[in-house]
Amino acid sequence: MKNMENRLYADLAWIWPIWGSVEEYRPESEDAVKMIREFSRIEPTTILDITCGGGKNDFTLKKYFKVTGLDLSEAMLENAKKLNPECEYVKGDMRDFDLERQFDAVYINDGIAYITTEQDLGKVFLKAFKHLKPGGVMITIAEHFKGNFHENQTKVFESQSEEPKITYIENNYDPNPDDTTYETTFVYLIREQGKLRIENDFHTCGIFTLETWRKKLNEAGFEVHERNQVYEGESYSVFICVKPL
User: Does residue 244 surpass a pLDDT of 60?
Assistant: First the structure.
């Protein structure tokens, strides 16, 4: 199974640029900008995007802020650099990094799903707090949490390109609801020059109660606000976290 894990961030990272357009990411990015401006107690001009991935959120964020993106995947960082050459990108683990500077805002999108323990969730929020200026805002999103998880949920997407033509099948499954992990499996049907090949990609993700999210954010030192946002027909819990002055 090891050679089938997290391939989207390694040998299959070339798929990411044609997996949906930047326009699909615009609504959540624009909402993040609005919430940062609403809650910030300082003038926000810089932002740190933790787990920036291929930079599709940054494509919108860079219109409002000077963007620095952080990700563990070198392949995804290369995608981000091609999409946003004017932004700064740094390789780093969201649980353990030090950029030796602070930002007016911090954004953590769905990459936080790869945190699988409460201890590591706390580490991420502590790092975000450290890198945020007093009065600044961190936005983070709980896409899946205990109480809203849809067992065996399966989605099908199509690529934005004609060649290769890719059909993406995504399945979420929780084999043990009593622990803090669930499985996401992707199957990619790749059709190119009349030939089909099938690639499998397995990811282990974390799932926590919203109370755990609140607890870890408060322990990190944040003043926490919450909103529900709906994207593509699904409801997400958004945490707007202010670092006290």
Answer: yes
